[in-house]
Amino acid sequence: MNSLWDWIWLTIVIFFIAVYIMMLFRVVLDIFRNHESSGWVKAGWLIVLFLFPLITMLIYVIVNGKEMAQRDVKQYEAARQAQDDYIRSVAAPADPTAQIAQAHDLLSKGAISQAEFDSIKAKALAGA
I want to staple 41 with a disulfide (CB 3.0 to 4.6 A). Which of 37, 60, 98, 103 is the partner? Predict the structure, then answer.
């Protein structure tokens, strides 16, 4: 490590090792996430991946790249739908009586103070 080029070379090598490890984990996770493949097919991919990691990883991405992307999109859409459902479930109801009842439940659980309950009640009645 006497020259600047040695440090640059070390940085490049570390970068590519990190990318390689990330890709390897990505392929292994996708092998397990693929519900269309049987257990024997998954085991075969993992054994070959263990024996010849770089070549197998490249072949897997070439053969299953499109399906990998589709599984990603499906997973992201499911997560977004779950988030949207959760947001809708905790959103304040439009009915003032329901808002006050929800605030009263929070007050009885100790999640909000009496002053916060009074403020929510006043806003709900003012909006009605």
Answer: 37
Tokens for 33, please give them.
């996430």
Percent of the chain with pLDDT over 90: 61
- State the DSSP string of the chain: --SHHHHHHHHHHHHHHHHHHHHHHHHHHHHHH-SSS-HHHHHHHHHHHHHSHHHHHHHHHHHHHHHHHHHHHHHHHHHHHHHHHHHHHHSPPSSHHHHHHHHHHHHHHTSS-HHHHHHHHHHHHHH-
Alpha-carbon separation of residue 32 from 35, 41, 84, 114 (angstroms):
8, 10, 27, 51
pLDDT band at 94 (very low <50, low <70, confident <90, very high): low
N-term to C-term CA, the chain:
74
pLDDT at 91 over 70: no
